[in-house]
């Protein structure tokens, strides 16, 4: 029996690493963010002139792939078997559900699909990583995902903006946990997921069991693009930590 799944997360939680790891299994296919035109059946690349412009690249992919016109068909195409895989799915971000009423309505009645929910406990680090991604061309980076460790860059972070983001992500997580409560799901923390060039053995086994495929090591060629500790690249680290710590939005997060 084939399994259909969604890999649900927010940006900068390691979802591309997990996607590539899933695709290392011969029986699993996880397409990319198909609602943005990445992965799936659409294989065309944007014009080279758009290389430096992430948002324009994404807009081009969304339109040319047909995802903008027919997002429902785009999602369903990812669940259709193409070769010998027995578990098929795609990456989906919270904001992609919220920006299109058609997508939200369709997903509200979903059944027979499994949910892999990936989150990052350290939402502050997630936010800083997102800021770096949005400003990546300033630092000579043209992709959000890398195969070699890039040179460390530094930045200043607006504490108020960080707290706003943390609260928004916390709200989204609660909202969509309830929204998808009717689906069978497995929850994965980014901080507990990675071991070297792949997933930790217990995470690999749990995912394989969840998708009803033979247990196998799940590996990726991506590497972390930023240092492990915020104080290594956030200029106003102490100001930021003090502000976030006093904001009352800590929850189960660790901001060190």
What is the structure about, briefly put?
The chain is an alpha/beta fold and 256 residues long. Helix content is 37%, strand content 13%.
Your description of this structure?
Helices cover 37% and strands 13% of the residues. It is α/β, with parallel strands linked by helices. It has a single domain, classed as Rossmann fold, CATH 3.40.50. A 5-stranded parallel beta sheet has the order 2-3-1-4-5. 30% of the residues are buried. The model has no long low-confidence stretch (mean pLDDT 89).
Strand arrangement in the largest pleated sheet: 2-3-1-4-5
Which stretches are low in confidence, meaning pLDDT under 50 for 5 or more residues running?
Answer: none
Q: Supply the number of helical segments.
A: 9
General form: globular
| The top level CATH class name | Alpha Beta
Total beta strands? 7
Question: Radius of gyration, rounded?
Answer: 18 Å
Number of domains: 1
Calculate the terminal CA-CA distance, rounded to whole Å: 44 Å
Overall mean pLDDT: 89
Oligomer: single chain
Helical/strand content category: alpha/beta
- Report the CATH architecture: 3-Layer(aba) Sandwich
């Amino acid at each position: 029996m084939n399994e259909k799944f969604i890999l649900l997360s927010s940006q900068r939680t390691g979802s591309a690493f997990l996607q590539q790891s899933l695709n290392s299994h011969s029986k699993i296919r996880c397409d990319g963010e198909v609602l943005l035109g990445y992965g799936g059946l659409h294989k065309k690349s944007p014009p080279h002139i758009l290389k430096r412009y992430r948002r324009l690249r994404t807009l081009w992919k969304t339109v040319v792939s047909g995802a903008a016109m027919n997002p429902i068909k785009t999602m369903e195409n990812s669940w259709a078997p193409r070769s010998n895989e027995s578990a098929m799915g795609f990456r989906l971000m919270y904001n992609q559900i919220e920006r299109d009423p058609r997508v939200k309505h369709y997903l509200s009645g979903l059944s027979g699909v499994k949910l892999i929910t990936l989150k990052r406990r350290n939402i502050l680090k997630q936010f800083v990583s997102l800021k770096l991604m949005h400003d990546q061309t300033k630092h000579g980076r043209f992709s959000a995902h890398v195969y070699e460790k890039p040179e460390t860059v530094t930045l200043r972070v607006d504490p108020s903006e960080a707290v706003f983001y943390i609260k928004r992500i916390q709200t989204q997580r609660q909202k969509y946990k309830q929204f998808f409560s009717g689906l069978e799901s497995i929850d994965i923390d980014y901080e507990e997921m990675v071991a070297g060039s792949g997933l930790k053995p217990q995470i690999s086994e749990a995912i394989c069991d969840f998708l009803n495929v033979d247990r196998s090591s799940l590996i990726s060629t991506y590497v972390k693009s930023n240092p492990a500790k915020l104080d290594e690249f956030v200029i106003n680290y102490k100001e930021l930590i003090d502000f976030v710590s006093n904001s009352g939005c800590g929850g189960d997060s660790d901001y060190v």
